[in-house]
Amino acid sequence: MKIQKFEESNIWKISLVITKNIYDLTAKGDFSKDYGLRDQIRRATVSISSNIVEGFEKNNNNEFVRFLKIAKGSSGEVRNQLYIALAINYISQEEFDNLNTKLENIANQIGGFIVYLQKKKINKEFLKK
């Protein structure tokens, strides 16, 4: 089944849940007062869904792959910032584990989608010859 609108994409839907989780987490306690880290982790998490959408809307597999790679990179950036938040006691181990698992999962799904799109391109080029 071909996705017609980005709103049908599971990775986009999951990225929105993660974004909400990050906003909720960063709105409490000391995290809410650390404007630099709070704003950076929020920007990075918003970047995940934004790049999925921007790539999808390009209607070009090469561009979509490029933006998916950026989204995957942003998920790693958020994970790094969660490690920092954990180290300085802004979040609990449980909060870290929950979000880190979600971010690892979405990174794996994005990576799998990248591989799928790249293979699809290779198959089309092979069939042209």
Explain what you see.
- By secondary structure, the protein is mainly α.
- It has a single domain (6-128), classed as 23S rRNA-intervening sequence (de novo design (two linked rop proteins), Up-down Bundle), CATH 1.20.1440.60.
- It has five helices and no strands.
- It has helices at residues 10-26, 29-33, 35-57, 61-87, 93-128.
- Helix 1 (10-26) runs antiparallel to helix 3 and helix 1 (10-26) packs antiparallel against helix 5.
- The longest helix is centred in the last third of the chain and has 36 residues, at 93-128.
- The mean pLDDT is 93.
Structure described in brief:
The chain is mainly α.
- Secondary structure class reads mainly alpha
Shape: elongated
Helix content: over 70%
Biggest beta sheet summary = none
Unreliable sequence segments? none
What's the helix-strand series? HHHHH
| Strand content bin | under 5%
Radius of gyration: 16 Å
- What is the number of helices? 5
The tally of beta strands, per DSSP, is: 0
CATH class: Mainly Alpha
Structural topology:
Elements: H1 10-26, H2 29-33, H3 35-57, H4 61-87, H5 93-128
Helix pairs in contact: 1-3, 1-5, 3-4, 4-5
Which tags fit this structure?
single chain, 129 residues, mainly alpha, de novo design (two linked rop proteins), 84% helix, 0% strand, elongated
